[in-house]
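Q: Okay, next protein. This is Glycoside hydrolase family 97 protein from Lepagella muris. I've checked the sequence twice, so it should be correct. Can you predict the 3D structure?
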Amino acid sequence: MIRKIVTALLLSGVAHNVVASGDNIVASPDGNLTVSVIDTDATPAYSVKYNDDCFIRPSRIGFKTDLGDYSTGLKLTAVSPIEAVQESYSIPNIKKSDIDYLANKRTFSFSKDSIHVFDIVFQVSNNDIAFKYILLPQKDALTTRIEREVTEFVLPDGTTSFLCPQSHPMGGYARTSPSYETPYTCDEPIGKNGWGEGYTFPCLFKNNDKGWILLSETGVDGSYCGGRLICESDSAYTIGFPQKGEMNGLGSEYVGLPLPGETPWRTITIGRNLAPIAETTIAFDVVKPLYAPSRKYEYGKGSWSWIMGMDESVNYDEQIRYIDFSSAMGFTSILVDSYWDKQIGRDKIEELARYGKSKGVDLYLWYNSNGYWNDAPPTPRHIMNNPAARRNEMQWMKDNGIRGIKVDFFGSDKQEMMKLYQDILSDANDFGLLVIFHGCTLPRGWERMFPNYASSEAVLASENLHFFQDNCDKEAYNATIFPFVRNTLGSMDFGGSALNQYYNSENKPYGTKRKTSDVFALATAVLFQSPVQHFALAPNNYEDAPSWAIDFMKNVPTTWDDIRLIDGYPGQYVVLARKHNDEWYIAGVNAVDEKKSISIDLSKLLPKLSKEERLSCTVIKDESLCKDNVKNISLKPDSKYKIEIPCNGGFVMKLSMQPK
């Protein structure tokens, strides 16, 4: 009876007394964000409020397994005391380098037929919720097959969505989908299901005028599958397992789990505005490193010939040219792309590696993940999926000073494929290699879990600018979405910042044409976060690009200490700031037809500066798409700086402190 009264209070929005008593509720440290857990009609569910506003309506929890249906007929039998979680950690390869994570934790135990079947653990910080299941042994059963999670997110009426549709399995280029490379839709009403297969994580929603909701997951490794979000009704979304047809129909779309066993964390980020969304670190806060790094990994900038010259550019002479270009730019690597084994050869790769070392430039080598799960022909193939061949190859790379690998064409989120990601990463660490994934899934906390993980594509990246003019036309539109969705929860290997006007190695008027300004290209180097950046710059840019653009790209960092969202709206414009050491870089781009006027309050960005200090500021902005303007100015720390951004244009500011 008490529980039914609690439920009625939750549904009516009158929950103040319940919060005070602490029944079945866990709140954030500041008390604003609350999760309530109930078992009305023997169906476990939870709901989420921020202050007094509903952000997640009562939503089912549980799952169905080969041992039984653990979504109905359940009773909440125990609730643990609230436990404070406090952790400080440092990590060099995400959006913030030093993080203090504070949360409140509570475990809710559910039983069926008087048998304890699972716990659900909620950790609630000031803007983030993470929850996971712990499945328990049943009689003599020490393993289970999870056939479906019923984990649900029921959104308030009137919510709108900013989502990336999941593609059908075994489609696209050489039957390599899904690979998280479909276009986002913005400001769409909820109740749709993408192209029929749901949506890829992360998923962003706007709760009317009350705020924003970001849904995702973290902590996925080879012990589980990657999930997606499936719309089941006008307002209810559930966790979806991989599609049966992925991996050429082989491998299971279900999950095998030992008992006791844990699921990955499901995450919910709530914000009155978009700042908590863009700045969240929840994907890393609740996971732990799975192994120690075998060496100190070095990140940084590089170049790659393929984005402009395609497969034909992967030859010895062109790679020499790109090594020289990277060296002149102060970059520390090049990416040698597909077919290097056939068009350059291993002996010549060894020569390239030695030459690169003499110029301070290391090599990353491209590999196909295949395998039997798609028809992608680029080589090298049948190495990264074979443990013995993979380790032999990695020993050869270590012997020749190769810095890292880029592995492509995965096309599945099945548990078997997630295990391959983990195996590649752990083996690569044994040989001191960084790993970039391409044609792949979203990283789910991997920067902290796998110390040698660098970045993943999992986005409609720069290669699509080369292939399709429509993507060039929409480049600014997409760039204003990524910092609010894809890049919020993991490093994004976009491979952009092109300064060629045309996507070809001669920069001549054929092929696809860039519609954005050079300043826009510089801004995306700050807006898109990845500790390893292989930019779409070309050796000819040293002669035909503005000197200020080359100078900026020489000096822009790829690792950051802090992030602040200043303003923006997905699909329209974005302005954010990133800190590296004692300098702040502020960047913005605009996708709407009219100029966007922005006022940057420096006192909010840099509250610790005294009135005796000044900010040395370099501003690069678009006066128009044809005329660029570079200024060096001095600003007071409490001043506001106003700037206008034209459509398809951008700006960058570099701030450093100096005495008055």
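A: Here is a summary of the prediction. The radius of gyration is 25 Å. The longest helix spans residues 415-430.
Q: Noted. On to the next one.
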